[in-house]
Write a structure and sequence with these properties.
2 copies of one chain form a homodimer. By secondary structure, chain A is α+β, with helices and mostly antiparallel strands. Chain A is built from 5 helices and 12 strands. At the A-B interface, strand 1, helix 1, helix 2, strand 4 and strand 5 of A face strand 1, helix 1, helix 2, strand 4 and strand 5 of B.
Protein backbone atom coordinates (compact mmCIF):
# COMPACT_ATOMS: atom_id res chain seq x y z
CA UNK A 1 0.00 0.00 0.00
CA UNK A 2 1.28 3.42 -0.87
CA UNK A 3 3.83 1.94 -3.25
CA UNK A 4 3.18 2.11 -6.94
CA UNK A 5 2.71 -1.38 -8.30
CA UNK A 6 3.73 -2.28 -11.79
CA UNK A 7 0.70 -2.43 -14.02
CA UNK A 8 -0.17 -5.55 -15.91
CA UNK A 9 0.41 -5.03 -19.59
CA UNK A 10 -2.15 -2.49 -20.74
CA UNK A 11 -4.23 -3.07 -23.84
CA UNK A 12 -6.29 -0.66 -25.91
CA UNK A 13 -9.75 -1.22 -27.35
CA UNK A 14 -11.06 1.48 -29.66
CA UNK A 15 -14.66 2.51 -30.33
CA UNK A 16 -14.49 0.80 -33.71
CA UNK A 17 -13.45 -2.45 -32.07
CA UNK A 18 -16.22 -2.10 -29.48
CA UNK A 19 -18.80 -1.55 -32.22
CA UNK A 20 -17.53 -4.64 -34.01
CA UNK A 21 -18.02 -6.86 -30.95
CA UNK A 22 -20.85 -9.37 -30.98
CA UNK A 23 -23.85 -7.72 -29.26
CA UNK A 24 -23.74 -9.57 -25.90
CA UNK A 25 -19.97 -9.09 -25.64
CA UNK A 26 -20.39 -5.35 -26.24
CA UNK A 27 -23.13 -5.13 -23.62
CA UNK A 28 -20.95 -6.90 -21.04
CA UNK A 29 -17.98 -4.70 -21.91
CA UNK A 30 -19.82 -1.37 -21.93
CA UNK A 31 -21.57 -2.18 -18.67
CA UNK A 32 -18.33 -3.03 -16.85
CA UNK A 33 -15.81 -0.40 -17.99
CA UNK A 34 -17.30 2.42 -15.89
CA UNK A 35 -16.45 0.72 -12.60
CA UNK A 36 -18.69 -0.30 -9.72
CA UNK A 37 -22.32 0.73 -9.87
CA UNK A 38 -25.10 1.85 -7.56
CA UNK A 39 -27.59 -0.96 -7.53
CA UNK A 40 -30.97 -1.32 -5.87
CA UNK A 41 -34.37 -2.94 -6.11
CA UNK A 42 -37.13 -0.65 -7.34
CA UNK A 43 -40.51 -1.46 -5.78
CA UNK A 44 -43.70 -0.21 -7.45
CA UNK A 45 -47.33 -1.08 -7.95
CA UNK A 46 -49.93 0.04 -10.44
CA UNK A 47 -53.30 1.54 -9.52
CA UNK A 48 -54.77 -1.97 -9.35
CA UNK A 49 -52.16 -2.87 -6.69
CA UNK A 50 -50.31 -5.25 -8.98
CA UNK A 51 -46.76 -5.02 -7.66
CA UNK A 52 -43.50 -4.96 -9.57
CA UNK A 53 -39.89 -5.31 -8.48
CA UNK A 54 -36.90 -4.58 -10.70
CA UNK A 55 -33.16 -4.48 -10.14
CA UNK A 56 -31.68 -1.21 -11.39
CA UNK A 57 -27.92 -0.58 -11.50
CA UNK A 58 -27.94 3.06 -12.58
CA UNK A 59 -28.92 4.91 -9.42
CA UNK A 60 -27.29 8.33 -9.29
CA UNK A 61 -27.21 11.07 -6.68
CA UNK A 62 -28.48 14.30 -8.21
CA UNK A 63 -28.87 16.62 -5.26
CA UNK A 64 -29.00 17.04 -1.50
CA UNK A 65 -31.27 20.06 -1.02
CA UNK A 66 -33.77 18.47 -1.44
CA UNK A 67 -32.35 14.93 -1.72
CA UNK A 68 -32.83 13.76 -5.32
CA UNK A 69 -31.85 10.57 -7.09
CA UNK A 70 -32.02 9.58 -10.73
CA UNK A 71 -31.95 6.33 -12.63
CA UNK A 72 -31.76 5.39 -16.28
CA UNK A 73 -34.39 3.25 -17.97
CA UNK A 74 -33.45 1.58 -21.19
CA UNK A 75 -36.05 0.76 -23.79
CA UNK A 76 -37.17 -2.79 -23.20
CA UNK A 77 -39.66 -5.07 -21.61
CA UNK A 78 -37.98 -5.80 -18.28
CA UNK A 79 -37.90 -2.36 -16.77
CA UNK A 80 -40.88 -0.98 -18.68
CA UNK A 81 -43.47 -2.09 -16.11
CA UNK A 82 -41.55 -0.32 -13.38
CA UNK A 83 -41.31 2.88 -15.39
CA UNK A 84 -45.04 2.73 -16.21
CA UNK A 85 -45.95 2.26 -12.55
CA UNK A 86 -43.76 5.16 -11.47
CA UNK A 87 -45.29 7.54 -13.99
CA UNK A 88 -48.84 6.27 -13.39
CA UNK A 89 -48.77 6.42 -9.59
CA UNK A 90 -45.98 8.87 -8.74
CA UNK A 91 -44.29 6.69 -6.14
CA UNK A 92 -41.58 4.04 -5.88
CA UNK A 93 -39.10 2.62 -3.42
CA UNK A 94 -35.34 2.08 -3.67
CA UNK A 95 -34.17 -0.90 -1.62
CA UNK A 96 -30.51 -1.74 -1.00
CA UNK A 97 -29.33 -5.23 -1.85
CA UNK A 98 -27.29 -7.35 0.56
CA UNK A 99 -25.51 -10.68 0.28
CA UNK A 100 -28.53 -12.60 1.60
CA UNK A 101 -30.78 -11.51 -1.25
CA UNK A 102 -28.50 -10.86 -4.23
CA UNK A 103 -29.72 -13.95 -6.12
CA UNK A 104 -33.38 -13.07 -5.65
CA UNK A 105 -32.52 -9.51 -6.68
CA UNK A 106 -30.80 -10.72 -9.86
CA UNK A 107 -33.76 -12.99 -10.65
CA UNK A 108 -36.04 -9.93 -10.91
CA UNK A 109 -34.21 -9.05 -14.14
CA UNK A 110 -35.88 -11.99 -15.95
CA UNK A 111 -38.56 -11.04 -18.46
CA UNK A 112 -41.76 -11.80 -16.60
CA UNK A 113 -45.19 -11.00 -17.99
CA UNK A 114 -47.04 -7.92 -16.82
CA UNK A 115 -49.41 -9.80 -14.52
CA UNK A 116 -46.59 -11.56 -12.67
CA UNK A 117 -45.13 -9.88 -9.60
CA UNK A 118 -41.39 -10.26 -9.17
CA UNK A 119 -42.05 -10.19 -5.41
CA UNK A 120 -43.86 -13.53 -5.76
CA UNK A 121 -41.42 -15.26 -8.06
CA UNK A 122 -38.25 -14.04 -6.34
CA UNK A 123 -39.45 -14.91 -2.86
CA UNK A 124 -38.70 -11.40 -1.56
CA UNK A 125 -41.33 -10.02 0.80
CA UNK A 126 -43.40 -6.90 0.27
CA UNK A 127 -43.51 -4.45 3.13
CA UNK A 128 -45.96 -1.53 3.36
CA UNK A 129 -45.49 1.14 5.99
CA UNK A 130 -46.60 4.59 7.06
CA UNK A 131 -49.23 4.73 4.33
CA UNK A 132 -46.60 4.97 1.58
CA UNK A 133 -48.15 3.80 -1.70
CA UNK A 134 -45.30 1.70 -3.08
CA UNK A 135 -44.05 -1.55 -1.54
CA UNK A 136 -40.63 -1.88 0.12
CA UNK A 137 -38.49 -5.02 0.17
CA UNK A 138 -38.67 -6.33 3.72
CA UNK A 139 -35.27 -8.06 3.51
CA UNK A 140 -33.55 -4.81 2.55
CA UNK A 141 -31.75 -2.99 5.38
CA UNK A 142 -31.79 0.46 3.76
CA UNK A 143 -35.03 1.56 2.08
CA UNK A 144 -35.92 4.85 0.42
CA UNK A 145 -39.47 6.09 -0.15
CA UNK A 146 -39.39 8.08 -3.39
CA UNK A 147 -41.75 10.52 -5.09
CA UNK A 148 -41.50 10.80 -8.88
CA UNK A 149 -40.54 14.32 -9.97
CA UNK A 150 -39.44 14.33 -13.58
CA UNK A 151 -38.81 12.15 -16.61
CA UNK A 152 -36.19 13.34 -19.09
CA UNK A 153 -35.85 11.70 -22.49
CA UNK A 154 -32.22 11.25 -23.49
CA UNK A 155 -32.67 11.48 -27.23
CA UNK A 156 -29.06 10.43 -27.87
CA UNK A 157 -30.05 6.79 -27.35
CA UNK A 158 -33.76 6.82 -26.42
CA UNK A 159 -33.24 6.16 -22.75
CA UNK A 160 -35.09 7.93 -19.97
CA UNK A 161 -33.70 9.60 -16.86
CA UNK A 162 -36.22 9.38 -14.02
CA UNK A 163 -35.70 11.80 -11.15
CA UNK A 164 -37.31 11.38 -7.75
CA UNK A 165 -37.26 13.05 -4.36
CA UNK A 166 -36.56 11.17 -1.14
CA UNK A 167 -39.65 11.32 1.11
CA UNK A 168 -38.28 9.04 3.84
CA UNK A 169 -35.30 6.80 4.58
CA UNK A 170 -35.35 3.61 6.68
CA UNK A 171 -31.98 2.40 7.97
CA UNK A 172 -30.43 0.36 10.78
CA UNK A 173 -30.08 2.61 13.79
CA UNK A 174 -26.42 1.76 14.43
CA UNK A 175 -25.35 2.66 10.87
CA UNK A 176 -25.91 6.42 11.03
CA UNK A 177 -22.79 8.38 12.04
CA UNK A 178 -23.09 11.63 13.93
CA UNK A 179 -21.94 13.72 10.93
CA UNK A 180 -24.86 12.49 8.83
CA UNK A 181 -22.95 9.73 7.00
CA UNK A 182 -24.96 6.54 6.61
CA UNK A 183 -22.52 3.63 6.75
CA UNK A 184 -23.87 1.46 3.94
CA UNK A 185 -21.02 -1.02 4.35
CA UNK A 186 -22.07 -1.64 7.95
CA UNK A 187 -25.64 -1.98 6.63
CA UNK A 188 -24.26 -4.79 4.42
CA UNK A 189 -25.27 -3.10 1.17
CA UNK A 190 -23.44 -4.44 -1.86
CA UNK A 191 -22.34 -3.04 -5.20
CA UNK A 192 -22.24 -4.59 -8.66
CA UNK A 193 -20.18 -4.45 -11.82
CA UNK A 194 -21.14 -5.37 -15.33
CA UNK A 195 -24.48 -7.11 -15.77
CA UNK A 196 -24.10 -9.88 -13.23
CA UNK A 197 -21.17 -9.46 -10.82
CA UNK A 198 -21.96 -8.70 -7.17
CA UNK A 199 -19.44 -7.44 -4.62
CA UNK A 200 -19.18 -6.84 -0.89
CA UNK A 201 -16.90 -4.03 0.27
CA UNK A 202 -14.03 -3.44 2.70
CA UNK A 203 -13.55 0.13 3.81
CA UNK A 204 -10.12 1.57 3.09
CA UNK A 205 -10.68 4.83 4.95
CA UNK A 206 -12.80 7.91 5.40
CA UNK A 207 -10.85 11.09 4.60
CA UNK A 208 -11.13 14.61 5.92
CA UNK A 209 -12.55 17.43 3.79
CA UNK A 210 -9.88 18.35 1.23
CA UNK A 211 -8.38 21.84 1.29
CA UNK A 212 -5.45 23.28 -0.66
CA UNK A 213 -2.11 22.93 1.15
CA UNK A 214 -3.51 20.82 3.93
CA UNK A 215 -2.70 17.17 4.62
CA UNK A 216 -5.63 14.77 4.48
CA UNK A 217 -6.32 12.78 7.62
CA UNK A 218 -8.43 9.76 8.40
CA UNK A 219 -11.71 10.62 10.09
CA UNK A 220 -12.18 7.08 11.41
CA UNK A 221 -13.49 6.21 13.91
CA UNK A 222 -15.96 9.06 14.15
CA UNK B 1 -24.67 -16.64 4.31
CA UNK B 2 -27.94 -17.58 2.76
CA UNK B 3 -29.70 -17.29 6.13
CA UNK B 4 -31.81 -14.26 6.86
CA UNK B 5 -30.18 -12.26 9.62
CA UNK B 6 -32.21 -10.23 12.07
CA UNK B 7 -32.08 -6.58 11.17
CA UNK B 8 -30.74 -4.01 13.58
CA UNK B 9 -33.56 -1.83 14.84
CA UNK B 10 -34.73 0.23 11.89
CA UNK B 11 -35.23 3.96 12.17
CA UNK B 12 -37.09 6.38 9.92
CA UNK B 13 -35.98 9.82 8.80
CA UNK B 14 -38.54 11.85 6.86
CA UNK B 15 -37.94 14.51 4.23
CA UNK B 16 -38.88 17.19 6.75
CA UNK B 17 -36.24 15.94 9.15
CA UNK B 18 -33.67 15.80 6.36
CA UNK B 19 -34.47 19.39 5.38
CA UNK B 20 -34.06 20.45 9.00
CA UNK B 21 -30.56 18.96 9.25
CA UNK B 22 -27.60 21.32 9.40
CA UNK B 23 -26.30 21.75 5.84
CA UNK B 24 -23.15 19.58 6.07
CA UNK B 25 -25.04 16.84 7.87
CA UNK B 26 -27.68 16.82 5.11
CA UNK B 27 -25.01 16.68 2.42
CA UNK B 28 -23.32 13.70 4.10
CA UNK B 29 -26.65 11.96 4.55
CA UNK B 30 -28.02 12.56 1.05
CA UNK B 31 -24.74 11.49 -0.53
CA UNK B 32 -24.61 8.20 1.36
CA UNK B 33 -28.18 6.85 1.35
CA UNK B 34 -28.09 5.79 -2.32
CA UNK B 35 -25.41 3.16 -1.73
CA UNK B 36 -22.00 2.74 -3.31
CA UNK B 37 -21.10 5.06 -6.15
CA UNK B 38 -19.19 4.99 -9.43
CA UNK B 39 -16.16 7.16 -8.86
CA UNK B 40 -13.39 8.25 -11.19
CA UNK B 41 -10.88 10.97 -11.94
CA UNK B 42 -11.85 13.25 -14.82
CA UNK B 43 -8.83 14.50 -16.76
CA UNK B 44 -9.17 17.58 -18.98
CA UNK B 45 -7.22 20.52 -20.32
CA UNK B 46 -8.25 23.83 -21.82
CA UNK B 47 -7.13 25.12 -25.23
CA UNK B 48 -4.01 26.61 -23.60
CA UNK B 49 -3.07 23.11 -22.33
CA UNK B 50 -3.71 24.02 -18.70
CA UNK B 51 -4.72 20.67 -17.22
CA UNK B 52 -7.38 19.91 -14.66
CA UNK B 53 -8.18 16.79 -12.66
CA UNK B 54 -11.35 16.29 -10.64
CA UNK B 55 -12.82 13.40 -8.69
CA UNK B 56 -16.41 12.71 -9.75
CA UNK B 57 -18.62 10.19 -7.95
CA UNK B 58 -21.66 10.29 -10.22
CA UNK B 59 -20.56 8.29 -13.24
CA UNK B 60 -23.48 6.48 -14.82
CA UNK B 61 -23.78 4.01 -17.67
CA UNK B 62 -26.24 5.34 -20.24
CA UNK B 63 -25.83 3.02 -23.19
CA UNK B 64 -23.83 0.28 -24.88
CA UNK B 65 -24.50 0.86 -28.59
CA UNK B 66 -22.54 3.12 -28.76
CA UNK B 67 -21.01 3.06 -25.26
CA UNK B 68 -22.15 6.21 -23.44
CA UNK B 69 -21.56 7.46 -19.92
CA UNK B 70 -22.99 10.40 -18.04
CA UNK B 71 -21.98 12.36 -14.97
CA UNK B 72 -23.63 15.06 -12.89
CA UNK B 73 -22.00 18.44 -12.32
CA UNK B 74 -23.24 20.46 -9.41
CA UNK B 75 -23.06 24.23 -9.46
CA UNK B 76 -19.83 25.18 -7.74
CA UNK B 77 -16.24 26.11 -8.12
CA UNK B 78 -14.54 22.74 -7.74
CA UNK B 79 -15.95 20.94 -10.73
CA UNK B 80 -16.62 24.02 -12.85
CA UNK B 81 -13.17 24.08 -14.45
CA UNK B 82 -13.61 20.49 -15.55
CA UNK B 83 -17.02 21.19 -17.05
CA UNK B 84 -15.69 24.28 -18.85
CA UNK B 85 -12.80 22.31 -20.32
CA UNK B 86 -15.09 19.52 -21.51
CA UNK B 87 -17.45 21.90 -23.27
CA UNK B 88 -14.61 24.06 -24.67
CA UNK B 89 -12.48 21.23 -26.04
CA UNK B 90 -14.89 18.31 -26.47
CA UNK B 91 -12.69 15.72 -24.79
CA UNK B 92 -12.03 14.25 -21.36
CA UNK B 93 -10.78 11.07 -19.71
CA UNK B 94 -12.31 8.89 -17.01
CA UNK B 95 -9.67 7.18 -14.87
CA UNK B 96 -10.44 4.48 -12.31
CA UNK B 97 -9.17 4.98 -8.78
CA UNK B 98 -7.29 2.29 -6.87
CA UNK B 99 -6.08 1.94 -3.30
CA UNK B 100 -2.64 3.35 -4.16
CA UNK B 101 -4.01 6.70 -5.28
CA UNK B 102 -7.25 7.24 -3.36
CA UNK B 103 -5.77 10.00 -1.18
CA UNK B 104 -4.39 11.90 -4.15
CA UNK B 105 -7.74 11.41 -5.86
CA UNK B 106 -9.62 12.82 -2.86
CA UNK B 107 -7.22 15.78 -2.68
CA UNK B 108 -8.36 16.89 -6.15
CA UNK B 109 -11.69 17.87 -4.59
CA UNK B 110 -10.05 20.83 -2.81
CA UNK B 111 -10.94 24.26 -4.23
CA UNK B 112 -7.85 25.15 -6.21
CA UNK B 113 -7.63 28.28 -8.35
CA UNK B 114 -8.11 28.05 -12.10
CA UNK B 115 -4.40 28.30 -12.94
CA UNK B 116 -3.44 25.45 -10.63
CA UNK B 117 -3.40 21.93 -12.06
CA UNK B 118 -4.62 19.22 -9.70
CA UNK B 119 -2.14 16.91 -11.43
CA UNK B 120 0.70 18.99 -9.98
CA UNK B 121 -0.66 19.39 -6.46
CA UNK B 122 -1.90 15.82 -6.09
CA UNK B 123 1.29 14.24 -7.39
CA UNK B 124 -0.60 12.15 -9.94
CA UNK B 125 1.10 11.88 -13.32
CA UNK B 126 -0.33 13.05 -16.63
CA UNK B 127 -0.20 10.59 -19.48
CA UNK B 128 -0.85 11.46 -23.12
CA UNK B 129 -1.28 8.74 -25.71
CA UNK B 130 -2.43 8.03 -29.22
CA UNK B 131 -2.90 11.74 -29.92
CA UNK B 132 -5.90 11.95 -27.61
CA UNK B 133 -6.35 15.58 -26.55
CA UNK B 134 -7.11 15.10 -22.84
CA UNK B 135 -4.62 13.78 -20.27
CA UNK B 136 -4.99 10.37 -18.60
CA UNK B 137 -3.89 9.52 -15.06
CA UNK B 138 -0.83 7.32 -15.44
CA UNK B 139 -1.40 5.54 -12.11
CA UNK B 140 -4.89 4.49 -13.12
CA UNK B 141 -5.26 0.90 -14.35
CA UNK B 142 -8.46 1.45 -16.32
CA UNK B 143 -8.69 4.59 -18.45
CA UNK B 144 -11.45 5.78 -20.79
CA UNK B 145 -10.96 8.30 -23.60
CA UNK B 146 -14.23 10.24 -23.87
CA UNK B 147 -15.77 12.55 -26.43
CA UNK B 148 -18.31 15.09 -25.18
CA UNK B 149 -21.73 14.59 -26.78
CA UNK B 150 -24.38 16.47 -24.88
CA UNK B 151 -25.04 18.67 -21.86
CA UNK B 152 -28.49 18.52 -20.34
CA UNK B 153 -29.57 21.07 -17.76
CA UNK B 154 -31.54 19.49 -14.94
CA UNK B 155 -33.71 22.45 -14.04
CA UNK B 156 -35.06 20.75 -10.93
CA UNK B 157 -31.89 21.71 -9.04
CA UNK B 158 -29.65 23.48 -11.58
CA UNK B 159 -27.28 20.59 -12.09
CA UNK B 160 -25.95 19.45 -15.44
CA UNK B 161 -25.85 15.97 -16.91
CA UNK B 162 -22.85 15.61 -19.23
CA UNK B 163 -22.99 12.71 -21.68
CA UNK B 164 -19.95 11.39 -23.50
CA UNK B 165 -19.07 8.58 -25.87
CA UNK B 166 -16.25 6.13 -25.23
CA UNK B 167 -13.58 6.50 -27.94
CA UNK B 168 -11.08 4.04 -26.43
CA UNK B 169 -10.55 1.97 -23.30
CA UNK B 170 -7.18 1.08 -21.74
CA UNK B 171 -7.19 -1.86 -19.31
CA UNK B 172 -4.89 -4.54 -17.88
CA UNK B 173 -4.76 -7.39 -20.36
CA UNK B 174 -5.51 -10.10 -17.80
CA UNK B 175 -8.70 -8.38 -16.59
CA UNK B 176 -10.83 -8.86 -19.70
CA UNK B 177 -12.97 -12.01 -19.64
CA UNK B 178 -13.85 -13.81 -22.83
CA UNK B 179 -17.54 -12.80 -22.61
CA UNK B 180 -16.61 -9.10 -22.72
CA UNK B 181 -16.78 -8.50 -18.96
CA UNK B 182 -13.97 -6.29 -17.69
CA UNK B 183 -13.09 -7.44 -14.17
CA UNK B 184 -12.69 -4.10 -12.42
CA UNK B 185 -12.13 -5.80 -9.07
CA UNK B 186 -9.11 -7.62 -10.49
CA UNK B 187 -7.99 -4.24 -11.91
CA UNK B 188 -8.09 -3.00 -8.27
CA UNK B 189 -10.67 -0.30 -8.98
CA UNK B 190 -12.42 0.94 -5.85
CA UNK B 191 -15.83 2.39 -5.05
CA UNK B 192 -16.92 5.13 -2.67
CA UNK B 193 -19.82 6.04 -0.45
CA UNK B 194 -20.86 9.41 0.86
CA UNK B 195 -18.42 12.25 0.33
CA UNK B 196 -15.26 10.68 1.67
CA UNK B 197 -15.46 6.92 2.26
CA UNK B 198 -13.44 4.63 -0.03
CA UNK B 199 -13.92 0.87 -0.34
CA UNK B 200 -12.25 -2.13 -1.92
CA UNK B 201 -14.46 -5.00 -3.02
CA UNK B 202 -14.73 -8.76 -2.59
CA UNK B 203 -16.66 -10.56 -5.28
CA UNK B 204 -19.62 -12.58 -4.04
CA UNK B 205 -20.40 -14.17 -7.40
CA UNK B 206 -21.21 -13.69 -11.06
CA UNK B 207 -24.67 -14.99 -11.92
CA UNK B 208 -26.09 -16.46 -15.12
CA UNK B 209 -28.56 -14.49 -17.25
CA UNK B 210 -31.91 -14.57 -15.44
CA UNK B 211 -34.88 -16.27 -17.11
CA UNK B 212 -38.35 -17.07 -15.74
CA UNK B 213 -38.58 -20.52 -14.14
CA UNK B 214 -34.88 -21.22 -14.42
CA UNK B 215 -32.45 -21.55 -11.53
CA UNK B 216 -29.58 -19.05 -11.46
CA UNK B 217 -26.09 -20.51 -11.53
CA UNK B 218 -22.65 -19.11 -10.85
CA UNK B 219 -20.72 -18.32 -14.02
CA UNK B 220 -17.38 -18.30 -12.19
CA UNK B 221 -14.72 -19.06 -13.22
CA UNK B 222 -15.30 -18.12 -16.85
Amino acid sequence: MGETKLKSKQKEITLNQIMNMEKQERVHFANSIGGFKSVGLIGTQNKSKLTNLAIVDSIIHIGSNPPLFGMIFRPGVVERHTLENIVETGFYTINHINENIFKQAHQTSARYDREISEFEVSGLNKEYKNNFFAPFVEESQVQLAMEFKEKIELTINNTVLVIGEVKAVYYPEDCLQKDGFLDVEKAESITCSGLDSYHKTIRIDRLSYAKPNQELTSILPL
